[in-house]
Amino acid sequence: MKYFEIGWLSTSDGPGSRVVIFLQGCSQRCPWCHSPHSWAESSPLLFNSSRCQNCGMCVDACNQKVHSIQNGSHFLNRDRCINCGMCVAACPNSQNDYLGSALCLPTRTKTAYALFQYVLPQLDIIKQSGGITLSGGEALLQAEEVAEFLKLCKEKNISTCIESSFSLPASRYELVMPYVDYWLAGLRDISLGKNSDEEDKNIINKINLVSKYAKKIIARYPVIDGFTTTAKHKERYLNVMKACHIEEIEFMKCNENMMHYYTLSGIPCEMNLDRIILENNQIEEIAAFFQKEGIVVRII
């Protein structure tokens, strides 16, 4: 299983206290995403210029000629990078999976069994009040490994939760659903304004499919001005929730620090933060739309 981060004690990613494993890979490309380093199937090379001393050791170590020092500045040609890690190993200010390094390959790979054993001590501590959540990226891009991991969790009576966009083929959901207690439904296809009727039917069918096993499904709603604030968008979300008998929704504010990982990843950010972040009263107005329909709203 490929993952880029673990949250060891989250209270906003499923019921109770949870270990959250953020799995690598996502095809959605949401413009407001605050984890662009999760998009690629394999680990991206992150570069923090403030930690670089321009010593040139990475230039000498890299056979792919990714790095160059010109007029006292460090430049990267990421198209050449094969993620070998030689530059990270050579850099005096870097550790391979430490996000505070000058250079970093954040993604780690473990078998489902090894990853389960790695997080089990913490799960043993919190399993009476919480459990495990698999997020991303899009967790079900690794559906076979996820199913194996969750099966191990259920053998230990650990509560399980997955966050998903419900945009992938139904076969991936069928593979894991016997082992999932809770789902956090991100519904990215709606948030991105993709073709209404057909996409909504597909989402509804897949949510109703997993509901046969799930204890609860909670909708997740990114509150992003200009994207998810229109009347049409709110109606689509509400209609899907009603069709799937979802009674709770979590509002997710835009991460004001989202630019950090775009800079480290060398990915242009299309969003203007000053234009997409909503004031609390604006979020409360959207919340009222759902609350008048009997939906429980939580802002996280």
UniProtKB/TrEMBL annotation:
Residues 12-293 form the Radical SAM core domain. It catalyses: glycyl-[protein] + reduced [flavodoxin] + S-adenosyl-L-methionine = glycin-2-yl radical-[protein] + semiquinone [flavodoxin] + 5'-deoxyadenosine + L-methionine + H(+). InterPro entries: 4Fe4S_Fe-S-bd, 4Fe4S_Fe_S_CS, Aldolase_TIM, BssD/PflA/YjjW, Organic_radical-activating, Organic_radical_activase, rSAM, rSAM_sf. Residues 43-71, 72-101 form the 4Fe-4S ferredoxin-type domain. Coiled coil: none annotated. GO terms for molecular function: 4 iron, 4 sulfur cluster binding; lyase activity; metal ion binding; oxidoreductase activity. It comes from the Bacteria. Keywords: 4Fe-4S, Iron, Iron-sulfur, Lyase, Metal-binding, Pyruvate, S-adenosyl-L-methionine. Its cofactor is [4Fe-4S] cluster. Pfam families: Fer4_9. This is Pyruvate formate lyase activating enzyme.
